[in-house]
Specification:
six-stranded mixed beta sheet; Cytochrome Bc1 Complex, Chain A, domain 1; 18 helices; single chain; 2 domains; alpha+beta
Length: 470
């Protein structure tokens, strides 16, 4: 997991203007929901680099009266602006596969059905007037409500969320409207015969885990309002699996008081369901397992090599493994540039396909190559990764990665989105986040820790996915 991957876990994220805009984009994407990058901060809102050294960030942790967790971080990066992320650790993958479509689309159906007597157009107009940009999405193992809003609209937003949790409903009309839109999207995707690399990767690595695959018409045929309504009311059913993160130009005590007022006294009347996730049933990578498929593009082939790795037990282990991915990538970029004159877009990542579950975990290497050189490049990459283990870690390599992190640290630590992701991840994993605010753990990784991780890697157990241009 790279630093970009803290902002990888939620994949590049953007906030869409109003519910209608969100739904429109949702129904035209390959994943039934596209997220784009948030526009960069304007120069006038940015803190000058020399000021950053004096900025002391310290998160405040609270527990509401009903058991819901609240994390608040005041930052000076964007005056008058705040980000709120609300997470429920319950997703459509925690339910029966028969209910897949009903659960995944439940939150869209609820908005389409209206809230507290207001229809979706009225809700959209109201959000626009308040300057609130909102995104809602049900993922395989969690549900997210996220907003960007003026700092003085915290009370309003908290009231809106509370109203949704307490009174959201699913209508037959809303169900049919969403079903029709999604059906059109699936049909368009099928007619285009487009093979998406990430979707093919999930099918290849996890052929039996349908929750990781895109919706099909056969799933949609099982959609019904009753199941969707039942899922909506599971979102806040277990307060211990409910997390609110607020980052921005806010007063922590005022935020706590606001959410305590709106949600602290509420308790769902629905009994929480147990998760169906079982990591023992998950497919594991095998030596020399390969899969090739055609891509709807011309030019280079796309290759992804995946090696299993032990899941991290704490933030220190997470940081060390992330450090190793940077080290591997730096070595490969040097090797490929010397060999071909180009780094071939090589990218090394630390991945959790069943996020927020940390098992199984993979280190993956992805690159783009000339189709005639696929096998040669695959062997080159594997040999280089194995040499890392055989030859050992050089101190200058570790020092080079440390220098990189020191240079990039200032950029990341001045981003509200970065801290939103850090607090979200650590909150879901019940890890202490305090050390992040003292000093980036990546700057504390030692050569001994790196060597121990490298020694534990098995570069002879791998899977390879190849997307070939037509």
């Amino acid at each position: 997991m790279k630093k970009s991957s803290y902002i990888l876990f939620f994949i590049s994220l953007s906030l869409f203007l109003g519910i209608i805009t969100f739904l429109a984009i949702y129904f035209t994407s390959d994943y039934c929901g596209v997220q784009c990058e948030i526009p960069p901060l304007s120069t006038s809102d940015e803190i000058q680099s020399e000021e950053l050294a004096n900025v002391q960030l310290a998160p405040k942790m609270y527990t509401l009266s009903n058991g819901m967790k609240l994390e608040v971080l005041h930052t000076p990066f964007e005056k008058g602006e705040t980000f709120v992320r609300i997470l429920s650790l319950h997703g459509f993958g925690d339910e029966s596969p028969e209910k897949r479509a009903s659960d995944e689309l439940s939150i869209d159906i609820a908005w389409e059905s209206g809230i507290a007597g207001k229809n979706s157009d009225q809700i959209s107009a109201m959000l626009y007037e308040q300057g609130i940009e909102l995104i809602l999405k049900v993922y395989p193992f969690y549900t997210k409500i996220e907003a960007s809003l003026p700092s003085d609209k915290i009370d309003f937003f908290g009231s809106l969320v509370a109203t949704f949790l307490k009174s959201a409903h699913v209508s037959k009309e809303g169900t049919e409207a969403v079903k029709a839109k999604i059906a059109r999207h699936i049909e368009e995707r099928t007619q285009a015969r487009k093979n998406d690399f990430d979707e093919m990767f999930r099918k290849f690595m996890f052929p039996h885990e349908e929750e990781l695959h895109a919706l099909k018409l056969s799933d949609l045929n099982k959609l019904n309002a009753e199941d969707a309504d039942a899922f909506i009311h599971q979102i806040g059913a277990d307060p211990k699996k409910f997390l609110i993160i607020v980052v921005g130009d806010v007063n922590a005590e005022e935020v706590h008081a606001s959410f305590e007022k709106q949600l602290g006294g509420w308790k769902s009347e629905v009994k929480p369901k147990e998760t169906l996730f079982n990591e023992q049933s998950i497919f594991k990578s095998e030596k020399d397992k390969k899969f090739e498929f055609p891509l709807q593009q011309r030019g280079d082939a796309v290759i992804k090599i995946v090696c299993p790795i032990k899941s991290p037990e704490d933030s220190e282990a997470m940081s060390t493994i992330e450090f190793v991915t940077y080290l591997i990538e730096d070595r490969l970029k040097t090797l490929l540039s010397n060999k071909t004159g180009s780094s071939l877009g090589v990218d090394v990542s630390y991945e959790f396909p069943f996020y927020p579950h940390l098992s199984p975990a993979n280190i993956s290497v992805q690159l783009m190559v000339d189709p005639s050189e696929k096998e040669e490049m695959i062997q080159l990459v594997l040999d280089n990764m194995r040499s890392l283990k055989a030859d050992g870690i050089k101190l200058e390599e570790v020092a080079a990665v440390h220098r990189y992190f020191r240079q990039s640290d200032e950029y990341w630590r001045s981003s509200n989105e970065y801290w939103l992701d850090i607090l979200s991840n650590y909150g879901m994993w019940n890890w202490s986040v305090n050390k992040f605010f003292d000093n980036d753990p990546l700057l504390k990784v030692t050569p001994k820790q790196v060597s121990d991780v490298v020694e534990s890697l098995d570069f002879n157990a791998y899977s390879i996915l190849m997307g070939n241009p037509k």
